[in-house]
């Protein structure tokens, strides 16, 4: 039995609330159970210097966790002078996931920065961030289209993410903190709406996992991402 009493292939309760940041061009408050992430997409008429003159846009992301998003207070990374390696890894992952489904030339020479702020953490903050970021990005593009800045929304597909793991010898979907902290294997899967693989991050915390374990987790991930994409469609539809 899972600590949350869910079935092995059962997601936590997920919600996607749009338009929660008044001044952002696109925003979403995403909840995976007790993990809550506020995502805001900001349009900027500037590009990294290395992209200027190439006739395409750029999507980048920043990620952060509020001091009391966890059981004990953590210091703001701004007070240490630089983001941690974990933070850099996650924000690069979010950026890669979004760029995989965007027609960058159709944006024009503009940049959208997607800020992912963890309000409360209970496992799966990066997967929740990616799933909510797609909604915020969609609404930013819709804002641009409504002002005739772009002729169409340049999204080629949906993208969402979910965690899986081997807990007590059983492959399970969407790990919360109680499972993640005790899992023998944990992995994050980023998939498109059409089922394309964007990124897989998998780690054996104890014994190595088998190819059969990997395929079992991938099967669970496809089910979970299918449910998340359906919620994204409902949210923006």
TrEMBL record:
The keyword rRNA processing applies. Keywords: Nucleotidyltransferase, RNA-binding, rRNA processing, Transferase, tRNA processing, tRNA-binding. Belongs to the RNase PH family. It catalyses: tRNA(n+1) + phosphate = tRNA(n) + a ribonucleoside 5'-diphosphate. It comes from Blastochloris tepida. GO terms for molecular function: 3'-5'-RNA exonuclease activity; tRNA binding; tRNA nucleotidyltransferase activity. This is Ribonuclease PH. One of its GO terms (biological process) is rRNA catabolic process. The keyword Membrane does not apply. InterPro entries: ExoRNase_PH_dom1 (IPR001247), ExoRNase_PH_dom2 (IPR015847), ExoRNase_PH_dom2_sf (IPR036345), PNPase/RNase_PH_dom_sf (IPR027408), Ribosomal_Su5_D2-typ_SF (IPR020568), RNase_PH (IPR050080), RNase_PH_bac-type (IPR002381), RNase_PH_CS (IPR018336). Phosphate binds at residues 86, 124-126.
């Amino acid at each position: 039995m899972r600590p949350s009493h869910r079935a092995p292939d059962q997601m936590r309760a997920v919600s996607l609330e749009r338009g929660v940041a008044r001044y952002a061009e696109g925003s979403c408050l995403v909840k995976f159970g007790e993990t809550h992430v506020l995502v805001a997409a900001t349009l900027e008429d500037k590009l990294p210097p290395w992209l200027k003159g190439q006739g395409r846009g750029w999507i980048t992301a920043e990620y952060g966790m509020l001091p009391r998003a966890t059981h004990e207070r953590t210091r703001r990374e701004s007070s240490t002078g630089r983001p941690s390696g974990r933070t850099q890894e996650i924000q690069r992952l979010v950026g890669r996931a979004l760029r995989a489904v965007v027609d960058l030339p159709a944006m024009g020479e503009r940049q959208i920065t997607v800020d992912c702020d963890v309000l409360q953490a209970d496992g799966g903050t990066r997967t929740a961030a990616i799933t909510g970021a797609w909604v915020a990005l969609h609404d930013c593009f819709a804002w641009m289209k409504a002002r005739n800045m772009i002729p169409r929304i340049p999204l080629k597909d949906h993208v969402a993410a979910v965690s899986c793991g081997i807990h007590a010898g059983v492959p399970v979907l969407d790990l919360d903190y109680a499972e993640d902290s005790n899992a023998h294997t944990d992995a994050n899967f980023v998939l498109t709406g059409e089922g394309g693989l964007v990124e897989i991050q998998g780690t054996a915390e104890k014994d190595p996992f088998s190819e059969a374990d990997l395929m079992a987790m991938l099967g669970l991930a496809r089910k979970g991402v299918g449910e998340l994409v359906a919620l994204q469609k409902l949210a923006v539809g």
